[in-house]
Design goal:
Layout (H helix, E strand, L loop, with lengths): L1 H17 L5 H37 L2
């Protein structure tokens, strides 16, 4: 049990004293980049799915 307690104490000390946390502005900018990239990727996947669906429908209807 003492090892676990020691682990928690060292983890807390590392998170509060050694980790460099991003500023609020950097965090917001990063979140916007992730959201924009996610939307772009979703649009690309939708376009690929839509194209493949219509291509397969065309091939099956021959």
């Amino acid at each position: 049990m003492s090892k676990f307690t020691n682990y928690l104490k060292e983890s807390y000390a590392e998170l509060t004293h050694k980790v460099t946390w991003p500023t609020w502005d950097k965090l917001q900018n990063s979140a916007v980049v992730v959201m924009v990239a996610s939307v772009i990727l979703a649009i690309i996947i939708f376009a690929m799915d839509f194209t493949f669906q219509h291509l397969m429908s065309f091939i099956y209807n021959l």
